[in-house]
Amino acid sequence: MRSRTIVIASVILAFVFVVSSIAMARGHWRGAGGNCAAPVGLRSMMGLNLSDSQKDKAVKIVEECEINRIKAGGELMKDRENLRVALQADNVNEQDIRKAYKKLSSTREDRVIARAKMMTEMKSILTPEQLKLWDERKAERSDRSICRGRGDSGRAGYGKKSADCLRW
Predict the structure, then answer these.
(1) Buried-most residue among 4, 25, 41, 57 (CB within 10 A)?
(2) How many domains does the chain have?
(3) Cα dist from 19 to 8, 22, 56, whole Å
(4) Is the per-residue pLDDT at 105 higher than 80?
(5) Per residue in 38-60, is it b (16+ CB within 10 Å) or e — as a string?
(6) What is the pLDDT confidence band of residue 65, given thresholds at 50, 70 and 90?
(7) Is 151 part of a structural domain of the chain?
(8) 26 falls in which pLDDT band (50, 70, 90)?
(9) Residue 160: inside a domain
(10) Is the pLDDT of residue 68 over 50?
(11) Which pLDDT band, with edges at 50, 70 and 90, does 93 fall under?
């Protein structure tokens, strides 16, 4: 019973840490693309009736991803600042702008890849039944986001027209 309490406390602590970290960083990293999005993954996982072993693995995956996301966040902010400086220079240097933009793009790309790896790791701990339920829920979330006016591009107004969406 004591180990179960420790596991539950660990899951709650990890979730609070992840949510608070993302909330604090939101202003700095908005629109960065490739955020680890751990709360969504963890929230989705918790609704799948995971075993204690699966919960431990999920928390470990999320914690690892969150630590890496925070480290990469500093690099992302530095890359954005370098691009801003290059763009606002008195004498525009095309090569400096290209270099700064490529570095920023590379950092964003690394974050997208990190998120994809995290999701793959999360899915690897699921049973076939849980994986099926995960995929069904993901499809439902995708449908809701399109109906809110956000499609694959993330721009408002892209995707289905409001007449195509279910009314709740």
Answers:
(1) 41
(2) 1
(3) 17, 5, 18
(4) yes
(5) bbbbbebbeebebeeebbbbbbe
(6) confident
(7) no
(8) very low
(9) no
(10) yes
(11) very high
Judge whether 118 lies within some domain: yes
| Six-digit token string for 97 | 């702008």
Q: Which domain holds residue 27?
A: 2-136
φ, ψ (nearest 5 deg) of residue 49: 55, 55
In whole angstroms, how far apart are CA 137 and each of 11, 12, 44, 100?
21, 22, 8, 39
Share of the chain above pLDDT 90, in %: 27
Asked, for residue 92, whether it belongs to a domain, the answer is yes
The pLDDT tens digits for 106-146 are: 999 999 999 899 889 988 999 999 888 888 887 887 766 55
Q: Write out the E strands in 46-140.
A: none
Cα separation, 63 vs 146, in Å, equals: 30
Residues shown for the chain: 168
Q: Residue 7 pLDDT > 80, yes or no?
A: no
Contacts of 146-152 with C-beta under 8 Å, sequence gap 24+, read none
Contacts of 68 (CB under 8 A, 6+ apart): 36, 114
